[in-house]
Amino acid sequence: MKQSGLPDLKLARLADDLDLVKRARGRAFATIDRDPDLSEEPGLLSELRSRFEGSIEWLFHS
Length: 62
What we know:
The protein is mainly alpha-helical. The chain has one domain (14-60). Helices cover 52% and strands 0% of the residues. It is built from two helices and no strands.
């Protein structure tokens, strides 16, 4: 049974997935550094907003 309202999430096994997690984190920070309001990444922005609704708006306020 899937709980409504929660994004699909596969829990990482840190020992196995540490390199992947580090690379994903690095790319996420690089994307935000390059394009803070994600104007060049409308698909990514749309996906983030649909999955996390208002909980990501703090990213876009200084």
